[in-house]
Amino acid sequence: IAQTAVGGVLLLANKDFPARNLRELVDYARANPGLTYGTWGIGSSGHLVMEWLKRQAGVDMVHVPYRQTPQLLGELSSGVLRVGWADPGSPVPFIESGRIRGIAISGNVRVPRTPDIATMGEQGYPFEAVGWFGLFAPAGIPPAIVERLSAEVNRFQRRPEVAARMAALNFEPPPVKTP
User: Fold this and answer.
1) pLDDT tens across 81-95, in order?
2) What gap in Å lies between CA 166 and CA 62, rounded to an integer?
3) Taken in order 155, 159, 165, 169, is the CA torsion positive or negative?
4) Exposure of 176 by Cβ count < 10 A (0-12 exposed, 13-18 middle, 19+ buried)?
5) DSSP symbols for the chain
6) How far is 99 from 117, CA to CA, in rounded Å?
7) pTM of the shown model
């Protein structure tokens, strides 16, 4: 019916990890085969983006799936895990406190609360796909209802306070699209 939020995923590193950008991470991974990285689960967008990056860069890294993002961020900030992926919002307090560092973000745009984290494309590995959220309904809903719901969501998405909330969550500006 409507897309409600969109954003890339963040590639992160422990504050003491030697790589500060994607090129340095790739170089480090080449020199240290078997480097582990964490995500919020097998088949998650972070897992799939890293598998793509591994293939593009020709590096050997080992996936460590976590059950929850908070656990991953705790272990990343403590140094148990050195590299990991997370949604754009959850790691912001860790980044702002200096406990973890952003390496890259997937998608085509930098996001509001972490504007210094360059996109993968800006760093030589363009990965334009992003995650998104939406409003769905079962098949067979009358088109007039779908159109009305879509119009109402889009009307809401245009509000300045919604844009401010999306920015606070570190997401891209709210999307306004047709069903």
Assistant:
1) 999 999 999 999 999
2) 33
3) positive
4) middle
5) -EEEEEE--EEEEETT-S--SHHHHHHHHHHSTTEEEEESSTTSHHHHHHHHHHHHHT--EEEEE-S-HHHHHHHHHHTSS-EEEE-SSTTHHHHHTTSEEEEEESSSS--TT-TTS-BTGGGT------EEEEE---TT--HHHHHHHHHHHHHHHTSHHHHHHHHHTTPPSPP----
6) 15
7) 0.86
